[in-house]
Fold each of these.
Amino acid sequence: MAKKLVKWCLGYVKIALTGEHTNRLLTLLKNNGISLWDIVPVEHGYEAYMYKNDVFQIKPLLRKTESKMKILKKYGWFRISFRYRKRKPFIFGFLLCVCFIYYFTLFIWDIHIDGESNYTKEQLITYIKENYVDLGTRKNEINCEELEKELRKYFEEIAWINCELKGTQLIVHIRETIPAAETKNQTTPGDIVAGKDAVVSSIITRNGTPLIKKDMEVKKGDILISGTIYIYDDYNEILETNYVCADGDVYGKTEIIYDDYVSLSHYEKEETKEKKTYYSISLWGKTYTPYTPKKNYANQMETSEEIHLKLGENMYLPIFFVKNQKIEYVPKLVNYSEEEAISIMEERIQQYQDKLIEKGVVILENNVKIYIENGVCYAKGSFVVIERIGLYQEKTEQMED
Amino acid sequence: MKEKKEPLRAVEKISDSLSLPQDVLLSSTILTIEGTSKVFIENYKGITLYHENKIVIQAKHYQVILRGKNLRIEYFNQDDMKICGKIISIEFVS
């Protein structure tokens, strides 16, 4: 393959050699360092392939051996350049396009988030765009480690985060859980404190001094595992005080309040067949809309669908095609029956429970009650759960005092 | 004939004593044969005859005659050449 590519780049021709002394010609070609390949004997001579540049060297040898050479076919890059010699602007445009694409690939043109559940994609992307990486930032200016730290600091419920650059895309992988006592990367001494009011159900201490016991009631902010270790002498007096990064798992029984409602009568948007479509193009953050319909419907909803131009999977370019639509609708009053409203509410509660289980929470009791009052279906109550309550907190000077 | 062979022997002796390959000092032709379908020839002087059934290669002191069917020179350059086809015999003629 590599050989073929070299041949194609250098350019080669298929030739027919005829004459009475073609064997001598082959010997002379060899002695003059001219290479031939795929040599086939034909009537009155040979057919073979040779490099384009050797064609000019062969002429004196042809005269010496009284032979003739005919070029049968040309191959390679030179043939294309010769064919398009009158289309220089096209070649120039093509090369310019290649240069532009290369230039575009030096920047970030898309931010992708995955693994989010409590936080929304928009929330995370907006924060990243406003505070750290806006679209169009050079890739070599992005420090993924710093971004990870920033996001972890701002979004407290992120337990694990990883940022990577792929093509022109910044990909942020996150995992959300209840604030966990992450001490693996901690270097500053600190304690594990209660993240919420709870009754301790279990405690495992890996490092530090536990200050609580099972079945103890704790308030938010109480120290559960202290990062201060006292070393006593034989007379029970403090000999030495060490400050460490407290580490351990503390689970507690807590109560989660649930409050939701559904109106039995509500309005739904019923779309009519009337809609207006118009298109926009967005280049380097600027949007151009050649035509916008002036007439608005009395009741309308606007939608837009973005198509982000990309090469391959991750090579996004700063070009968006936007399809906008103005859709007319008629507001329609819809009434749920009591059974329907209750089943909707039950479904919502189930979804909420599934979300809690996904986060590693154990549900002990479900005290949510569903009832209908004044045309509204309410679901009010609480869940009694066991969840991780420990939260790492660095020691401050005041605390140490 | 004897006078011609003597200097060759001397060179051969030198190459043996210095552990040098003979093709460097004697410009011997090297034939590498792969089964009966491929022959690589190095240190040759020229091509004397090229037919489908017979190829004659000129070496320094002799000729190499290859006989076979559908013989074809796949490539040649200043240093070596490759011959493909059904090779029946290889002869050396002084």
Amino acid sequence: MLWFVSPQRRELARRIESNRARVFRVAYAWCHDAALADDLTQDALSRGLDSLDQLRDEERLVGWLLSILHRCWIDHLRGRRDCESEEALAELPSDEPGPEAHAEARETVRQVRLAVEALPLGQRQVITLVDLEELSYADVADILGIPIGTVMSRLCRARGALRALLEPARGENLLLRRVK
Amino acid sequence: MSTRFSEEQLNAFVDGELAAAEREEVLAASSSDPEIAQRLCALRAGKDLLRHAYDRNVLPAPRRAPRGRSRWTHALAAGVLLAFGIVVGAQLQRVPLPATMTLSGWASHFFVAQPGRILVHLDHADPEHMEAALDLVGAYLEKNGSAHVEVVVNNRGLDMLRADRTPFAGRIAELEYRYDNVVFIACERAIARFEQEGEQVTILPQAVRTRNAIAHIAERVQGGWTYIKV
């Protein structure tokens, strides 16, 4: 069927591949399981390659890949009943950070990730897309297929919950201390 | 306590999502009102913390090596093999199922019951039925807050999600606010039809759209959702 691969298509394939680390980070922030994040990333990039024809605007490649990742994630949750509930997901082991992070930083990282794990899925997705990927509310709404108002209310609740979870554990001035 | 700005407004401010005029207002207020300044600080610090927790340096690296060959090279190879097979003869081995989906896996995919997923369908404009649908959704989510619930409306059932017609805008907003996994879905075909008939259709801000409600329902039922027609 595809006897001829245009240079433009090859370039897009290359750009898709170059976003692997980025897609992986979001996948990891959603599922907190390195192996699963790998699979989801692989799945999303493959699906992206297979459906390049559906990419309308090349400038929006990353948003498009993330919306595919979102579908892969939903498919995964549907396909695996044992992973279906938020509680089950919250129990997935979180990976230890790399050796380059020293002990105190590691503790902060662990606590933040634990707090993120405790968020309902929808909130977790919204806050990671806004804060990690720095996407606009409109883009996040697009990627997850939800209204902008829902993006805002989930974000609000997610941040409120994170604050409540992190402050007592880390001392009440932690959040302020970190501000430059 | 300062309530001049909602939490959502302050969030939008730190995310750079406010329009210029509103941004100026928050900025001005934050320089004179220490409480607002402090709230903004906390929000920014939270963003920093999250970014730090998923910084590339503390994240496990993606393990799988990039593919050496692209998908279409495989497609090409498969095409060549297929052509070869046809030439060689008919009694070749069966084409194996894709490794990711065995036959039993495929079958159980369709028959597995998923009680945590219900779809409520409404296709007429009886307010009593609308109320019954919302009662059902509310009661179900109260028991099982992590369940996934979709309320799909088409035909005259669309009225329930029309801002200009629904008697239940408040209840819908409240459900949507309280539960992350409840989705109100309006059929685009129904919207288009009423618009063609000259009606001005405004959908509630909490609702999303689907191109074709029936196709959507069919997909859900096939995916193991429990279907309830009200």
